[in-house]
Design goal:
By secondary structure, this protein is of the alpha/beta class. Among the domains are: 78 residues; 127 residues, P-loop containing nucleotide triphosphate hydrolases (Rossmann fold); 159 residues, Helicase, Ruva Protein, domain 3; 133 residues, Substrate Binding Domain Of Dnak, Chain:A, Domain 2 (Up-down Bundle); 157 residues, Hypothetical upf0131 protein ytfp (Roll). It is built from 34 helices and 16 strands. Strands 2-3-4-1-5 form a five-stranded parallel β-sheet, with helices on one face. A five-stranded mixed β-sheet has the order 12-9-16-14-15, covered by helices on one side. Helix 17 links the parallel strand 2 and strand 3. The longest helix is centred in the N-terminal third of the chain and has 36 residues. The two termini are 38 Å apart. Pfam families: AAA_9 (PF12781), AAA_lid_11 (PF18198), Dynein_C (PF18199), Dynein_heavy (PF03028). GO terms for molecular function: ATP binding; dynein intermediate chain binding; dynein light intermediate chain binding; minus-end-directed microtubule motor activity. It is found in: Cell projection, Cilium; Cytoplasm, Cytoskeleton. Keywords: ATP-binding, Cell projection, Cilium, Coiled coil, Cytoplasm, Cytoskeleton, Dynein, Microtubule, Motor protein, Nucleotide-binding. This is Dynein heavy chain.
Length: 952
C-alpha cells in the first residue's frame, strides 16, 4: 500500500515501516550497478572497504564491551588486578591499530566515492525515469511496472549502450540510450493517447531535475492563473482578447522574467500577435523580435501557447519534447511480435491490453505458425468465462512441461479467477523446472480487477485498431468474406450500399473523437452491428423488387444501431448520418458522400477494387466527412490539450514553496480570504418586491414566486456552504481544527484552481475553473437579487443563472395557463429571437411569456442582419445568441423548416437520463430559423446547440 490511510486506533497499536524506494535511494542503487559494470575494480574495492570498516568497528565495540565487563566484575583494588591492567594495555594498542585502519579506510572510501560520483549522472537519469514510469499507474490501472523489471532493463542498457574510453562521452551515450530504450519499451504497453503524455512527463522530469524549469514556471503551466489574481492593466485588444485571457497574459508577464515585456509587446507588436492569434499553426510562428531564442525557450513558448491558444497546446508539447529530447521521442515506433519475442521468456507472461474492436488473435496465430507453434497443437487458446478456470490451469500445467504456448483470452471477464492467475504467475517466476520454450499469452481489456503482480511481472503490449475513417473502412474490407460480397442477386446496388454501410459504421465510430459535438453519450458500436446490417441489406435486396429504403433505415438505424442509443437527440443524429449513406441516390455512380467529392462508393467491381480505392483516400479525414464544421477540429484539440494538463496535474505530488515564494498553505489561506471577502450577502425575503410572495385564497404562491423561492433556497444553501468551508479551511491550515479528508480535498482544489467537491455537491452544473466559477456565482447572485427586488417588473430573465431552468419554464407555462384558463399540457413554447442582446436596451417586458438572455450558440452563429442561424466563423467556437422571447402557444410544433436546436446547461451535454428519456443536462429545444443554404439535418450533423454556460 503506497499511501495507507489507517485509523488512529490502529496506528497506536502497530509500527509503520516505510519500505517505499526514494529517488535518492534508487539513485544510489543504480550508481552501484553502473560502477560495478563500468569500473568493477572500484566497486569491489568499495565492497571490501565497507566489510573491512564494519569488521574493525565491530572489533572496537567488542573491546569496549570486554573492558566494561571486566571493570564491572573486578573485585578489590583495580590497580592490583594485573590481568585487568594487561588487558587494558593490550586493548589500548589494539584499539589504536584498529582506529588507524578505520581512518585509513575512511580516507580511501572517500577517494573511491569521489571516483564513483563521476558516474552519478547515469544513475540520476535512471532514477528520474523510474519514478516517471511508476507514476503511470496513477493514469491507467494496466500501466504497472515493478522495480525489479526496471532494474533488469537498466542493467541491460548498461551492457548494450555504446562504449567509449572517455567517461564523459560514455555517460552521455548511456543516458541517451537508457532514456530512449525505456521510452520505447514502455510505449509499447501504452495506448496512443497516453504516449504523448508519457514523453512529456519524461522530458519535463529530466528538465526539472536539471533546473531548466523553475518551480514557478511548472506551477503556472499546470495550475494557471490563481483565482485571487486581479488584472490591473488595460487590455490593448479588447475585441480579440477576452477578459480572462488578458488576465492570464498579465499574470504570465508578472510571474515569468522571460515575459516581463509581454504587456508592452502587445501594444507595440500587435500585428505579430494578431498573426499568432489567427494562425493555423501558432506553435510554429515566430515571436516578436524582442523575445529571442536565448530569452524564450521551447518551454516558455509552450506556456505562452497555453495562454493564447490552448487548443494548440498538444502541438506545442510535441515541439518542446522534440526540441529537448529529439524527434524520436515524439512518435513511438510501432511494435511487432518478431521484435518483442526476444525479450520474452518462459517465466514472463505477455499481456495484450485491448481496446474496443481490437483482437490480436489472428496476429498471434500467424506468429505462432512462423515459430513452428502450430495453433491447436502447440498453441492452445482458451477464452475465459464461467467454468473455464480449471481448464486453463490444466493447460498451463501441461504446457509448462511440454514447452507449448497457452493463450488466455478475455481475462477481464474472469474476475473470480484472477486470484488463481496471480498465484500461477508468482509460482512461475520461482519454478526452475519450466520448459524454456513455454510462453503464456494473456488478453484483457483495461480492468482494475486484473492482478497488479501479473502486470508488474509481464511484458505489456497495447493492441488497438487504427484510428481514422479510412483505416476503419479498410479493416472492414480486409475482413470481408469474398463469397458473401459476391452472393447478392443484384450486385450493383448491393456492393454500393455495403460500402455505404461500412463508411457509415466508420463515421459514427470516429465521430466520438469530437466529444459532445459528436455524441452526447459515447456509444460502443461494434462489428456485430455492422454484420447484422449487412445481412439485413442482402435480405431486403434479394427479396424485394425495389430496395425498401424506409424499411432499411428503420431496421438498421432504429434497431441494429439505435438499440444502443439512449439519448433521443443522439438518435436523431444517428438517423441523419444514416440518411446520407442510405438513400435512393446512394446507388448512383455520381453520388458523393461529401461536398468535396473525395469520398464516394466506387462503381461495382471485385473486392480488391474497393480495397485499392480505400488505400488512395487521405490518411486523416477532414471534419466534412462527419458533416461537421472545420471548427470541430479545434474542439477536439482543445479537449486533448485540457485532458493532457489535467492528467499531469492529477499525479503531481504536493510540493513546498520555492525560496521567497508563498507556501501552498499561505496561498490557499490568502485565496480563501479573498473569496470570502468578495462573497455577496445571502438572499433575504425582506428584500422582495411588494406582493412577490403574497398567497392566494388557497394559501398558494404564484407559479413564478414558487420558482423564485426554490431557487433562493438552493442559492442560500450554496452560499452557506462556501462561507462555512472557507472559514473551516483557514482554521484547519492554522491547526485550530482537524484537517478532514473533505477539507484536504478542498485544499488541493483551491491550490490547483479547481472548484472543490464540497461546493460542487450543492451547486449547479459547471465546467468553469475556480476563478471563473467565483465570478459566475457572484453574477448569478446579482441576477437573483435583481429578480427578488424587481419581482414581476423584471424585463428579461437570465435562464442560465438558475439551478433548475426546466422548473422556471414550467412556471412560465403555468402562469400563462392560469391567466388564460388553458390546460397546461396543451402548451408549448414558440421562440422569437430579438435584435438586441442587452437587457438594458429593453423598454419593457412582454405581455405574455418571458424574455431570456445570456444564451450561447455552440458551433454556429446568429446572423443579426438576416435573423437566421448561420455557420460559425473560422476559429469562433461560441457566439452570443440575442435575447429570445419564449412565448407559450397552444399545441405549437416547431416547423420542419426550422432547426430544433437543443439547449443544454453545460457543453458536456450528457447528464443523467431522466424519466422523460432526455438528459438532465437538456433544457429545451429552440426553434431557430436557418440560412437558406442549409437544412435542419445539416445542423444536426454539425452538432450545433445552445448553451447556458461556457467552460471559461
Amino acid at each position: 500500500m503506497p499511501n495507507p490511510h489507517l485509523l488512529p486506533e490502529i496506528c497506536i497499536k502497530v509500527t509503520l515501516i516505510n519500505f517505499t524506494v526514494t529517488q535518492i535511494g534508487l539513485e544510489d542503487q543504480l550508481l552501484g550497478d553502473v560502477v560495478r559494470k563500468e569500473r568493477p575494480d572500484l566497486e569491489e574495492a568499495k565492497d571490501r572497504l565497507v566489510v573491512s570498516i564494519a569488521n574493525d568497528k565491530k572489533q572496537l565495540k567488542d573491546l569496549e564491551d570486554k573492558i566494561l565487563k571486566m571493570l564491572k566484575e573486578s573485585e578489590g583494588n583495580i590497580p592490583d588486578n594485573e590481568t585487568l591492567i594487561n588487558t587494558l594495555q593490550n586493548s589500548k594498542l589494539t584499539s589504536g591499530m584498529i582506529q588507524g585502519r578505520v581512518e585509513e579506510a575512511e580516507v580511501t572510501e572517500r577517494e573511491i566515492n569521489e571516483a564513483r560520483e563521476s558516474y552519478r549522472q547515469a544513475a540520476t537519469r535512471g532514477s528520474i525515469i523510474y519514478f516517471v514510469i511508476a507514476d503511470l499507474a496513477l493514469i491507467g490501472s494496466m500501466y504497472q511496472y515493478s522495480l525489479v523489471y526496471f532494474m533488469n532493463l537498466y542493467n541491460l542498457c548498461i551492457d548494450n549502450s555504446e562504449k567509449d574510453d572517455d567517461v564523459g562521452k560514455r555517460l552521455q551515450n548511456l543516458c541517451e540510450y537508457v532514456t530512449f530504450f525505456m521510452y520505447n519499451n514502455v510505449c509499447r504497453g501504452l495506448f496512443e493517447d497516453s504516449k504523448a503524455l508519457y514523453s512529456f512527463l519524461l522530458c519535463s522530469a529530466i528538465e526539472r531535475h536539471a533546473g531548466s524549469i523553475p518551480p514557478a514556471s511548472w506551477n503556472l503551466l499546470l495550475r494557471g492563473t490563481p483565482a485571487s489574481y486581479v488584472s490591473l492593466k488595460e487590455n490593448p485588444m479588447p475585441d480579440r482578447l477576452r477578459e480572462d485571457l488578458w488576465t492570464n497574459i498579465e499574470y504570465l508577464a508578472a510571474t515569468i522574467p522571460a515575459f516581463s515585456e509581454l504587456i508592452d509587446s502587445f501594444g507595440s507588436d500587435s500585428d505579430r500577435w494578431l498573426a499568432i492569434l489567427d494562425s493555423d499553426e501558432p506553435h510554429n510562428e515566430e515571436l516578436p523580435a524582442r523575445f529571442t531564442a536565448e530569452k524564450v525557450d521551447e518551454f516558455h513558448k509552450m506556456m505562452l501557447m497555453k495562454v493564447l491558444r490552448e487548443e494548440k497546446l498538444v502541438f506545442a508539447v510535441s515541439r518542446y519534447v522534440g526540441a529537448t529530447l529529439g524527434q524520436r521521442f515524439v512518435e513511438a515506433l510501432p511494435w511487432t511480435l518478431d521484435e518483442v519475442f526476444p525479450d520474452t521468456n518462459s517465466k514472463t507472461p505477455v499481456v495484450f491490453v485491448l481496446s474496443t474492436g481490437a483482437d490480436p488473435t489472428s496476429m498471434l496465430l500467424r506468429f505462432a505458425e512462423r515459430m513452428n507453434m502450430t495453433p491447436g497443437e502447440r498453441l492452445k487458446i482458451i477464452s475465459l468465462g464461467q467454468g473455464q478456470g480449471p481448464i486453463a490451469e490444466q493447460l498451463i500445467t501441461e504446457a509448462m512441461k511440454s514447452g507449448d504456448w497457452v493463450a488466455l483470452q478475455n481475462c477481464h471477464v474472469a474476475s473470480s479467477w484472477m486470484l488463481s492467475l496471480s498465484r500461477i504467475v508468482e509460482a512461475l517466476a520461482n519454478d526452475d523446472t519450466v520448459h524454456k520454450d513455454f510462453r503464456l499469452w494473456l488478453t484483457s481489456m483495461p480492468a482494475k480487477i486484473f492482478p497488479v503482480v501479473v502486470l508488474q511481472q509481464s511484458i505489456k503490449l497495447t493492441f488497438e485498431p487504427p484510428k481514422g475513417v479510412r483505416a476503419n473502412v479498410a479493416r472492414t474490407y480486409k475482413d470481408m468474406d469474398g463469397e458473401f460480397f459476391e452472393s447478392c442477386t443484384k450486385p450493383q446496388p448491393f456492393k454500393k450500399l455495403v460500402f455505404s454501410l461500412a463508411f457509415f459504421h466508420a463515421v459514427i465510430q470516429e465521430r466520438r473523437k469530437f466529444g459532445p459535438l459528436g455524441w452526447n453519450i459515447r456509444y460502443e458500436f461494434n462489428t456485430s452491428d455492422l454484420d447484422c446490417s449487412f445481412a439485413n441489406l442482402k435480405m431486403f435486396i434479394d427479396e424485394q423488387p425495389e430496395i425498401p429504403f424506409p424499411a432499411l433505415l428503420y431496421v438498421i438505424g432504429q434497431i441494429n444501431y439505435g438499440g444502443r442509443v439512449t439519448d433521443d437527440l443522439d438518435r436523431r443524429c444517428l438517423m441523419s448520418i444514416l440518411e446520407v449513406f442510405l438513400n435512393p441516390r446512394a446507388v448512383d455512380d455520381d453520388y458523393k458522400f461529401t461536398k468535396s467529392g473525395t469520398y464516394y462508393a466506387p462503381p461495382e467491381g471485385p473486392l480488391d477494387d474497393y480495397r485499392n480505392y480505400l488505400s488512395s483516400l487521405p490518411m486523416t479525414e477532414a471534419p466534412e466527412v462527419f458533416g461537421m464544421h472545420d471548427n470541430a477540429n479545434i474542439t477536439f484539440q482543445f479537449a486533448e490539450s485540457r485532458r493532457l494538463m489535467e492528467t499531469v496535474l492529477s499525479i503531481q505530488p504536493r510540493v513546498s514553496a520555492a525560496e521567497g515564494a508563498l507556501t501552498p498553505e499561505e496561498q490557499v489561506e490568502m485565496l480563501s480570504l479573498e473569496i470570502l471577502k468578495g462573497l455577496p450577502e445571502p438572499l433575504l425575503y425582506e428584500e422582495a418586491a411588494e406582493g412577490m410572495f403574497d398567497r392566494n385564497e388557497a394559501g398558494q404562491l404564484t407559479s413564478m414566486a414558487n420558482v423564485l423561492n426554490q431557487e433562493m433556497i438552493k442559492f442560500n444553501r450554496l452560499h452557506k456552504a462556501l462561507k462555512t468551508t472557507l472559514g473551516q479551511i483557514g482554521k484547519a491550515i492554522k491547526g485550530l481544527i482537524v484537517m478532514t479528508n473533505e477539507l484536504e480535498g478542498m485544499f488541493h482544489s483551491l491550490l490547483n484552481n479547481q472548484v472543490p467537491g464540497l461546493w460542487s455537491k450543492v451547486a449547479y452544473p459547471s465546467l468553469k475553473p475556480l476563478a471563473s466559477w467565483i465570478k459566475d456565482f457572484n453574477a448569478r447572485m446579482t441576477f437573483m437579487r435583481q429578480w427578488l427586488v424587481e419581482g414581476d417588473a423584471l424585463k428579461s430573465y437570465s435562464l442560465p443563472a438558475l439551478f433548475f431552468p426546466q422548473g422556471f419554464m414550467t412556471g412560465v407555462l403555468q402562469t400563462h395557463a392560469r391567466k388564460y384558463k388553458i390546460a397546461i399540457d396543451t402548451l408549448n413554447f414558440e421562440f422569437t429571437v430579438l435584435k438586441t442582446s442587452s437587457p438594458e436596451d429593453l423598454e419593457e417586458g412582454p405581455e405574455d411569456g418571458v424574455l431570456i438572455h445570456g444564451l450561447y450558440i455552440d458551433n454556429g452563429r446568429w446572423d443579426a442582419e438576416r435573423m437566421v442561424l448561420d455557420e460559425a466563423l473560422p476559429g469562433e467556437m461560441f457566439s452570443t445568441l440575442p435575447i429570445v422571447h419564449f412565448i407559450p402557444a397552444v399545441n405549437y410544433k416547431i416547423p420542419a423548416t426550422m432547426y430544433e436546436c437543443p439547449l443544454y446547461k453545460t457543453s458536456v451535454r450528457a447528464g443523467v437520463l431522466s424519466t422523460t428519456g432526455a438528459s438532465t443536462n437538456y433544457v429545451v429545444s429552440l426553434g431557430l430559423p436557418i440560412a437558406d443554404h442549409t437544412t435542419p439535418s445539416f445542423w444536426v450533423l454539425q452538432g450545433t446547440a445552445t448553451l447556458c454556460a461556457l467552460d471559461t
